[in-house]
């Protein structure tokens, strides 16, 4: 999580590598099926599910979505294989799936990680207030209930309390961050 906070591009590359690993687990399962080792194949597919879920822990929404995609890489062949397992081989599969379900990554965990990321981003990008080009001081920021107002004092250099600047070059008032002036 900490490295993902500071290196989003690296995180995306890491997710791609993790997904490739899950494809390798699924390929191992297919190989075991061809070698007539269905129990070993099922284990490889369950490993893909376990890895997809585990990689999501502590991650962001995108991490969970990639984790779900990785789980699907294991689920599909496991569902096709399950009817071919003999009773002894099949006993382990539901037990493993129940363990996975008991420890699955919840959306509440993902939401908590997203909040942590947003707080980090807010601290990073709002650690200072940009300078007002007309006054040389920080831009004016005023909370207004649940909303806020960010503005420049404008060309006249006077803080008019957030009153919008009038039209034309001689207009008095303040410039909003989204002002068309």
Fold blueprint:
Elements: H1 2-6, H2 8-34, H3 38-54, H4 61-81, H5 87-102, H6 107-125, E1 140-144, E2 147-152, E3 175-176
Antiparallel strand pairs: 1-2, 2-3
Order of helices and strands: HHHHHHEEE
Instruction: Please give the domain count.
Output: 2
Main beta-sheet annotation: 3 strands, antiparallel
What's the helical proportion of residues? 55-70%
Query: Which ranges are low-confidence, i.e. pLDDT below 50, for 5 or more consecutive residues?
Result: none
Radius of gyration: 27 Å
E-strand count: 3
Strand line-up of the largest beta sheet: 1-2-3
* Shape estimate: rod-shaped
Count, helices: 6
Q: Tell me the strand percentage band.
A: 5-15%
Key structural traits:
single chain, mainly alpha, 2 domains, 3-stranded antiparallel beta sheet, 3 strands, 58% helix
Task: Describe the protein.
The protein has 181 residues and is mostly helical. The chain has 2 domains: 2-125, no CATH class; 128-181, no CATH class. The protein is 58% helix and 7% strand. The chain is rod-shaped, with a radius of gyration of 27 Å. The model has no long low-confidence stretch (mean pLDDT 86).
């Amino acid at each position: 999580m900490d490295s993902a906070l500071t290196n989003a591009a690296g995180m995306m590359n890491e997710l791609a590598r993790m997904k490739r690993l899950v494809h390798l687990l699924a390929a191992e399962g297919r190989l075991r099926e061809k070698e007539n080792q269905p129990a070993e194949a099922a284990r490889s597919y369950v490993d893909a599910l376990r890895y997809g879920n585990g990689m999501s822990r502590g991650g962001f929404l995108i991490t969970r979505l990639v984790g779900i995609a990785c789980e699907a890489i294991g689920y599909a062949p496991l569902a096709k294989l399950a009817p071919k397992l003999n009773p002894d081989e099949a006993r382990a599969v539901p037990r493993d799936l129940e363990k996975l379900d008991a420890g699955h990554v919840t959306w509440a965990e993902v939401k908590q990680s997203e909040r942590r990321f947003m707080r980090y981003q807010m601290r990073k990008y709002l650690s200072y207030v940009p300078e007002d080009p007309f006054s040389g001081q920080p831009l004016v920021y005023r909370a207004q209930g649940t909303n806020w107002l960010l503005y420049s004092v404008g060309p006249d250099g006077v803080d008019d309390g957030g009153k919008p600047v009038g039209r034309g070059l001689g207009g008095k008032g303040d410039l909003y961050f989204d002002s068309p002036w």
